[in-house]
Amino acid sequence: MSNRMAGGPKKCWPLIGFSLICLKMVASAKTAPEIPTIDQAYSKISNSITVEWATVPGATGYLLTAEDGDTVIETMVANSPGTVTGLKAATLYQITVRSISATGRSQASPPKQAKTVLAAPILEVSSPSPDSILVQWEAVYMAIGFSVSIMRANGLGRIWKENTTNTSLTFTSLEAGTLYTIKAYAWNANGTPGDDSTCNQRTSPPAPANIRVSFDSGALKASVSWAPREGAFNYTVMALSDSSELSCRTTLSACTISSLQCGTEYLISVLASNDAGSSKSTSAEALKTVACAPGRVTIQEDPPGHLSVAWSDVDLGDYYVAFVKSDDGLEVHCNTSLTQCNFLSECGFTYFISVFAYNKAGQSPLGDVFNYTTAPCCPTDINPVLVSSDRVEIVWSPVRGAELYETKAVDGFTVVECNDTAPACTLSALECDTKYNITVYSFSEVRGSNMSCTSQFITTAPCSPEIKSVSKDAYSTINVHWRPTNDDATYTVTAQGETGLFRCSSRGESCAMAGLPCGSVFSITVVAETQAGRSLPSYSVPLETVPCCPAGLTVTQVTQSLINVSWTVGTGAQTYVTVLESHTGQSKCLTHQNQCLLGCISCGVNYTVVLKAISATGLTADCTYQSYSSSACCPLGVKLYRLGPNGIRIYWQASRGSANYSTDLYGSKGIFTCAPSAGLSFCDVTEIPCGDVYTVMVSPVAETGLKLTFCPKKIYSVTCSGSTLGMVIYRGKRNAE
């Protein structure tokens, strides 16, 4: 098939000349086939014309030609009938046929006119509603009317057919969600129908019904379900609010819409869709989500122990529940339709606070969790464990919530502080005998100091006294004087030494102590005492008492003019002075020992004995003892006279003063003693053996009865021959042993 523009001789004539030359050549060689005769030409399709002719003997093919004045279209066919295609609809064509054989091509047959039928309308179909289909098309050239028919695509049911001169037609009362086949064609003025158009169109599905909405308040999502609809390919669930639109799409009969907003009212509708369109549910379901978590939460504690929680009102909130949980796990809550709740609180706790709004949909999402830490508790059992003149040590039990303790001692404008994490504090550099207002504040980093802690007054111990003087009166009483430095204090004076402690007390400025032992060294201190405590001792002042007098003193006559004085040790004494004094004179000795020899003693004289005990520092104790009488003088002129054969008279000359004497004769045959009668200066020894040498000693006898042995001894020989009377021979003198 070929197309060529009519009215183009340049293009046509070269083709015709060529055909003539060929015919001449063929004719010159062989005879051309016969010219066919067209029986009829007609059009059933808008782009073709069918031609029928009688068969030409010997023809192997035919050339069909269609001309409309503008174009020429040729088609080779094998036999009759033949169809020329590629034509224009509703157009009049001149149709000719040529037979072709091995010898050549015949001349064109006589022309036959035929007109192509109308073109098929181009349909646009849609389903504006579940029970209708709208068919639309553009105007068709040369058409004066149209026929449109519709039936179910499965062939069941009736066929609807409508004729119209319009370019659209709506079929109603159809079944929703059903596939239909639509056919349409145009006809011309002769009533000849043109080509038809066929298409399938499904009606849109029916609107979903029995919509049910289930809301999940925790996940903020809604599960929507409905009854499935015929012909629906898929469903779209839409949730529409004033500020947003959410949707979900599914081929099932249920769908879940997520990410819903709290505190929002949604209208839930379901759209059923297929390739024809969609239908929306006739009514929307209203859904109120849970309220949003309350905002602008404020927490106040006023007064302490009362916690006030307030928040802002929220949309769709019917009532509120505020939860307060302490850090020990205890939780309380309040239910209110207002925007404030009050709770009791305790010191030192951290409270975790959350507020929820409620409505029929459920509980609002969890908002911010607030924490509020109350002020730490105040110490209540403050106990001063040490109160001195310049410091106070206090302890207390740890309290809840305290990270640090601030202790302040205030005296007028003077403030002493100490900060520590331990429940104890030592306030130092305080003034003695001063009343301080002491407060222990608990502190936490979150809440700061609890300034509501109560204070207590503590008075420091009294100041240390200052000793002014220590003196001793004539009665050996110690008087201590000090400078008073405290109000309403009792002062205690302590004398401490190796022999013990001695005390006296006074509320004044002095105190007297008696009965301190002699020979001792004491340290004198003064302590002041008040209800607040005791002061530190004053600086000590040393005190030494006079040495003790020896408890015992012994005087022993060594010779007639020499005596030995001995004594016990006097405590505290380092040096002793011994003095024996009489009308005849004085004998004195100085020694570090506890005995002393005194010479130049007159016999038979009464002496006064005085001993002075002196300490290392020169303190002296005058010790007076009973008087001492020296021994009587040794007798002079001792002689022996014989009294018969066995008797001896010892005669002597008594010294000054009265004394008792004792006479001893020591011989190889025994010792013979005699004592004179009072007032006599001789005594007799009878039954003394003769013929022996005797040592004779006449000794004064002390008042104690002690016989003195320091008088001189004489030796006499007593013979047995001669006169029985007369002197005994004196043989010599012997020293006292």
TrEMBL record:
Q: Enumerate the UniProt keywords alphabetically.
A: Signal
Organism domain of life: Eukaryota
Signal peptide span: 1-29
InterPro entries attached here?
FN3_dom, FN3_sf, Ig-like_fold
Q: Name one Pfam family in it.
A: fn3
Q: Which residues form the Fibronectin type-III domain?
A: 32-116, 119-207, 293-377, 461-548
Question: Gene3D superfamilies this protein is in?
Answer: Immunoglobulins
Which CDD domains would you find in this protein's record? FN3 (cd00063)
Protein's name in the database: Fibronectin type III domain-containing protein 7 isoform X1
Q: What is the species listed in this Swiss-Prot or TrEMBL entry?
A: Zalophus californianus
